[in-house]
Amino acid sequence: MLTDLDGLHHVTSVAGPPRPVDRFWREVMGLRRIKTTVNFDAPEVYHLYFGDRVGTPGTVMTHFPFPAAPRGTPGTGEAGHVALSIPPGAAADWSRHLAAHDVAFTRESLFGETRLALTGPDGERLVLVEAEDARAPWTALPEGMAIRGLHSVSLRVADRAAMLPLLALMGYAETGQEGAVTRLADATGGPGHLVEIEHRPDLPAARQGAGSIHHVAFRTRDAESQARIRAGLTEAGHRVTEVRDRDYFRAIYFATPGGILFEVATDDPGFARDEPVETLGERLCLPEQHAHLRAHLEEALTPLDRPA
Question: What is the pTM of this model?
């Protein structure tokens, strides 16, 4: 079993036009835009990061907003939704807040938790879960309702059994089942340390597009722990990429038996490596390989509102 993983690091989604995405995550969801940069492989597309004050691993949502991207088609072989933790009793405040922003939602219960399921600007499914969570939030919204960070992700697959050995290797064990959903937790448990397998053999394979989750990233401390994880995954027969420097963390990637892309990202060096914490997300930060494109990109990219 791999012992160097520490729950979720971030979740990355494909999006449509950047301004609705940016406004939704800052003004509706109340997260801080902590980094404004570009896609390493497509520099004319933003890579936007949202999270707590400093982008603590486990609080971060990221988006690739392709302005002309068609909507994705939900199905198997993808992460079905992202769940974010809110304080116990906060669902009532969130109900009023979402209604005030014309965001449709439904109230539901799963594993005894109160949850609000809603749809983001590109049709993505998001869930707010009332949970005990001691993480300090970004307080664009009142602290008593503010999102604390990632709670869990659902992994929508046609073959539940195929996913279980990998998740066991990663330190996850079953803690409950309700309908088509199996919950698993790592040894730490609690928000940010949960995944849910959604067994849906009745669905077709997903087609990725705007609103689709591109990959799910798990957290590890540093390059040394990441190397041990890579070696363990490779020994178990998984095809893992070489380490890729993403400026704010180092990453490795591999496809799961269910067809979902997983990443393992390091905690270091963090999002303050190229701009002060006080002004995170306010300026366009470029990877070194794209620095020579600054004038062109500042002209080509859609202007975003200055973060509050």
Answer: 0.97
